Amino acid sequence: MSDNPLLDTVLEMNAVSVARVGFSAEALMLVRLAALVAVDAPPASYLANLGAGAQTSLTLEDARSVLIAVAPIVGGPRVLSAAGKITEALGLALAIALDELDAEAEQA
């Protein structure tokens, strides 16, 4: 448990969900990406799923394919919104990683 009960709750919900489905890690991440697009999720939601997605063999091409696949259902504006939010989440992930590297370098 951390000092952030909201984050703890979201992480617990994700863990339970992963444990209860019979999908491969890749299939689960593709389904989650499609759901995030459908609900017009904020960048933080994409960021929360990036870590799990990084542990799979999925590529940016796979993510692009999901956006193409759901476009006829959710609409162009929603897909374009998702693409921007995914890009923002990737930027946040990079900034966090760089901050962690800087902190490690300062401690060394």
Q: Strand-and-helix sequence, N→C? A: HHHHH
How far apart lie the N and C ends?
28 Å
Largest sheet, strands/sense/barrel: none
* Mean pLDDT over all positions: 89
Give the strand tally: 0
Instruction: Evaluate the radius of gyration.
Output: 15 Å
Number of helices: 5
The structure class reads: mainly alpha
The assembly state of the depicted protein chains is single chain
How much helix, percentage-wise, in residues?
over 70%
Which spans have pLDDT < 50 for at least 5 consecutive residues? none
What amount of the residues lies in strands?
A: under 5%
Shape: globular
Which key terms come to mind for this protein?
108 residues; mainly alpha; 5 helices; 82% helix; 0% strand
Describe this protein's structure.
Helix 4 packs antiparallel against helix 5 (76-107). The chain has helices at 5-20, 25-38, 43-54, 60-74, 76-107. It is 82% helix and 0% strand. The mean pLDDT is 89. It has one domain (24-107). It is an all-alpha fold and 108 residues long.
